Amino acid sequence: MKLRSFGLSSLRSFLVGILIALLTTACISHTAHSPNPQSAKPPADECRMMQHAMGETCIPLNPQRLVIIDSQALSYALALNVKPIAVFARKDSFDISYIKNRLKGVEAIPTINREPNLEKILLLNPDLIIGWSRDISQKNYKLLSQISSTILIPTIKTSSGSYDWKQEFIQAATMLNKVEIANQLIDEYRHRAEELKQKMNHQHGELNASYLQVYDGYLLFLSSKDSFSGEILSDVGFQFPPVPLSNTLSQNSLPISDELPISEEALPELDSDVLFIGTERDNESILKKFQQKPLWSQMRAVQKNQVYIVSEGAWRGYNILAANVVLDDIEKYLINMP
Question: According to the CATH classification, is domain 34-155 in 3.40.50.1980?
Answer without folding.
Answer: yes
